[in-house]
Write a sequence for this structure.
């Protein structure tokens, strides 16, 4: 993956560059799934924490849970979630827009004073496309997309996952390497200069040279 490829993954629709990672431990909560699916989602978060060196916690001091994942059948269901309008500005227009466009997923991020990710809200309307995915694959894909602030179109034409020769689905090695590099302690928590992509690229190259990824 070239520096230009990496830069594209964090270039917003307005042409600006922005990459941010979490500045606090992640505390996820999931709504709208059976209990057996909860462990699958938690396992995806744990796997990404191991990959990135980030942490999970039992509670967030401000929000209790700072990653909220909603699985639903229709977007209108969000309007009935108690207090969600307090957490999501413009909830009703958002629901109307998602319904009109036929979207099946949407993510909203909040940031702290340093620009680090403070909270994330993941909304998944389980249409046929999402329902056909294995639960493990869907969880891993969605968790990977909240570990960093990717561009709006980063995964429009590519998946964060890859299929091995034995048909096992895993996090795409390049995406995993970018997440690991972005969470390196020497890298900034938030970056708005495209030169950041060059630094990420350099760490990817160094990781390939060192099998241990150190």
């Amino acid at each position: 993956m070239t520096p230009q490829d990496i830069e594209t993954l964090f270039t917003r629709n307005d042409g600006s560059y922005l990459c941010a990672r979490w500045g606090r431990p992640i505390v996820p909560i999931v709504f709208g799934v059976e209990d057996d699916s909860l462990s699958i989602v938690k396992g995806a978060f744990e796997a990404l924490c191991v990959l990135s060196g980030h942490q999970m916690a039992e509670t967030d001091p401000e929000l209790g849970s700072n990653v909220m994942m909603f699985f639903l059948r229709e977007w209108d269901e969000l309007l009935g979630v108690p207090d969600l309008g307090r957490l999501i500005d413009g909830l009703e227009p958002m629901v109307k827009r998602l319904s009109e466009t036929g979207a099946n997923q949407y993510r909203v991020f909040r940031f702290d004073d340093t620009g680090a990710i403070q909270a994330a809200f993941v909304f998944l309307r389980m249409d046929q496309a999402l329902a056909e995915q294995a639960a493990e694959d869907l969880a891993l894909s969605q968790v990977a997309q909240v570990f960093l602030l990717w561009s709006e179109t980063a995964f429009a034409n590519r998946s964060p996952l890859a299929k091995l020769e034995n048909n096992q689905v895993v996090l795409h090695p390049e995406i995993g390497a970018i997440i690991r590099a972005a969470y390196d302690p020497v890298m900034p928590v938030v970056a708005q200069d495209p030169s950041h992509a060059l630094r990420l690229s350099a760490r990817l190259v160094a990781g390939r040279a060192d099998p241990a990824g150190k």
